[in-house]
From TrEMBL:
<dbReference type="InterPro" id="IPR001753">
    <property type="entry name" value="Enoyl-CoA_hydra/iso"/>
</dbReference>
<dbReference type="InterPro" id="IPR014748">
    <property type="entry name" value="Enoyl-CoA_hydra_C"/>
</dbReference>
<keyword id="KW-0456">Lyase</keyword>
<protein>
    <submittedName>
        <fullName>Enoyl-CoA hydratase</fullName>
    </submittedName>
</protein>
<dbReference type="Pfam" id="PF00378">
    <property type="entry name" value="ECH_1"/>
</dbReference>
<comment type="similarity">
    <text>Belongs to the enoyl-CoA hydratase/isomerase family.</text>
</comment>
<dbReference type="InterPro" id="IPR029045">
    <property type="entry name" value="ClpP/crotonase-like_dom_sf"/>
</dbReference>
Length: 265
């Protein structure tokens, strides 16, 4: 992955790629450039076989404040519905790549996660939040509705009633409350966020990567299918998991009474 991004800092080591959104003066609001760079960096991490887990985070005092309002449609007064849909398509590409990459993704959230930044965190597989996190479906505050996959992920994570409340009232949800709601997997003191995120990432990066990719496929496709279709898919995907070297290694390790050494193959 290239490292000369204008609005991202990227770092890969020990099979973990850390992508940091870096426009701290505006709480990492998305301008066109940062969105294009994030699309590129996430696609690169998805392709790179050495990368077995991806962490997405924000620089400065928050995760992200959503679309940059100074580049926003109403600020330049021109956008027709078609242009909005084209613009959103760039976010949709990012969300699909996060979903479809055959390796785990983690959003590490401190401070504010507002608007489309919040929903990009929801599109990651796991979320670890600091106790100072502030999740805000800020859209209705400016007369909009959730985008960036919010209409899909939010009700699935917290239930329809809470999703409607968060979208309509657009109130802040704190890190501890987000954990209680199931919006995040874990909430930790802010000073421990980096370490807590790395601990989960290290476990995943040394785990059975191919099985994780298949787990994503099974779970995400299962969200939209009936039992019969899900069971059919399960049969197909387990048929693939059972042929992986990591599965064979785990069985050997079991009988040799040692921890498995997964190669992600
Ligand atoms: O066509 C399309 O693109 C549709 C897509 C829409 C996607 C969306 O994401 S819509 C939602 C957009 N985001 C927002 O409406 C949130 C706007 N920001 C805020 O409401 C507040 O800043 C926060 C609640 C996020 C944080 O509040 P606070 O008090 O912690 O920080 P602050 O002082 O308001 O912000 C710090 C600076 O960042 C400030 O600049 P300054 O005064 O220090 O020079 C502020 O203007 C700037 N900033 C914050 N958010 C944005 C922003 N600048 C541009 N765009 C932002 N979204």
């Amino acid at each position: 992955m290239r490292s000369d991004f204008q609005h991202l800092v990227t770092q890969t080591s020990e099979h973990i790629s850390i992508i940091t959104m870096n426009r701290p003066a505006v709480l990492n609001a998305f301008n066109e450039r940062m969105l294009a760079e994030l699309n590129e960096a996430v696609a690169d991490a998805a392709q790179d076989e050495d990368v077995r887990c991806v962490i997405l985070k924000g620089a400065g005092r928050g995760f992200g404040s959503g679309q940059d309002l100074s580049e926003f449609s109403s600020a330049n007064g021109s956008k027709e519905p078609l242009e909005v849909s084209k613009h959103l398509g760039k976010y949709h590409q990012l969300i699909r790549t996060l979903q479809e990459m055959a390796k785990p993704t983690i959003a590490s959230v401190h401070g504010v996660a507002a608007g489309i930044s919040c929903n990009i965190a929801l599109a990651c597989d796991l979320r670890i939040a600091a106790d100072n996190a502030r999740f805000i479906q800020a859209f209705a505050r400016i007369g909009l509705m959730p985008d960036g996959g919010g209409g899909y992920f939010l009700p699935r994570l917290v239930g329809i009633g809470k999703a409607l409340e968060m979208a309509m009232l657009a109130d802040e949800v704190s890190g501890p409350e987000a954990e209680r709601l199931g919006l995040v997997n874990k909430c930790v003191p802010a000073a421990e966020l980096e370490e807590a995120t790395l601990q989960v990432a290290q476990r995943l990066a040394h785990g059975p990567t191919r099985a994780y990719g298949l787990i994503k496929q099974l779970m995400y496709q299962g969200l939209d299918s009936d039992l019969a279709s899900s069971l059919k898919l399960e049969g197909e995907l387990q048929g693939r998991a059972i042929t992986t070297e990591d599965h064979r290694e785990a069985i050997r390790a079991f009988f040799e009474k040692r921890a498995p050494k997964y190669q992600g193959k």
